[in-house]
Amino acid sequence: MKKALFAICLLIPVTTLAETKLGVIGAKSQSIYKATDSNSVSLPSISYEGENFFLRLPDIGYRFFPRRSFQNVAVGLSYDASTFDPSEANDINMRKLDDRDASVMAFASYRIGFISTKLSQDISGKHDGYSAKIALGFPIPVGMWRIIPSLSYEFMDSKMSNHLFGVSQKESTNTGGAISSYDSGSVSKIQYGVRGVYPITTSTNIMLGVSRTKYDDSILKSPIIERDETTSLLAGVIFSF
Fold first, then answer.
1. Which end of the chain has the smaller Cβ count within 10 Å, N or C?
2. Which H, E and C letters describe the chain, residue by residue?
3. Nearest-CA neighbor of 221 among 174, 173, 184?
4. Tens-digit pLDDT profile for the chain (241 aa)?
């Protein structure tokens, strides 16, 4: 789950006029997996925003129009760190499961105003699945603060969701049948949250955030999933250059 948190943190940009941003973000998030505690971790944040090329870990890509255009199209690669490390589980049978490794996804995205869409396909051979996402986020000035509420919907096909939530017959056998085999169908999730960005100096911002993720109820059919809702907390300092 630490890798998943890494992805969540680095996907949150702080919008300034500077093209390069460096920082540190602390995050705490609940796990959806059974017998697995919440994780707290401190992570680096790195991004570079050119007119067309951008590096916003875990994404790297190219925009077809200048970055401040009202609408834009981009293509690139993304490191999808949605993972599960069985060694983090407190249950002996959960610890016998295989790792759910991260994957490399090729993506194409389209943005118009505050609305963005993204279609991603695994090219690393980890699951060969795809995901589709639509998101909305817009800044609201409140005094010195910039408040940014956000809402997103993401669909994962059965190959991708089975990689994360399914249990193979081999894994079930390794647990002596304590964990039943399970094939996951397609899964969707809704995420909503809010971030607050406050400038300490012209080049230094602090950021606080909270988000809530709600999966399909069907995810609870998986014998390794404990909950279909999670909460994440974020706090960090971003330096702009």
1. C
2. CHHHHHHHHHCCCCCCCCCEEEEEEEEEECCCECCECCEEEEEEEEEEECCCEEEECCEEEEECCCCCCCEEEEEEEEEECCCECHHHECCCCHHHCCCECCEEEEEEEEEECCEEEEEEEECCCCCCCEEEEEEEECCEEECCEEEEEEEEEEEECHHHHHHHHCECHHHHHHCCCCCCCECCCCEEEEEEEEEEEEEEECCEEEEEEEEEEEECHHHHHCCCECCCEEEEEEEEEEEEC
3. 184
4. 444 444 444 334 444 444 788 999 999 999 999 999 988 888 888 889 999 999 988 899 999 999 889 999 999 999 998 889 999 999 999 999 999 999 999 999 999 999 999 999 999 999 999 999 999 999 999 999 999 999 999 999 999 999 999 999 999 999 999 999 999 999 999 999 999 999 999 899 999 999 999 999 999 999 999 999 999 999 999 998 8
C-alpha distances out from residue 186 to 94, 108, 166, 212, 217, Å: 23, 21, 11, 20, 12
pTM attached to this predicted model: 0.87
- How far apart CA 63 and CA 47 sit, in angstroms, is 15
Residue 238 CA to residue 161 CA, distance in Å, equals 33
How far is residue 194's CA from residue 149's CA, in Å, rounded to a whole number? 4
- Return the structure tokens found at 189: 């999730």
* Contact call for residues 97 and 112 (beta carbons, < 8 A): no
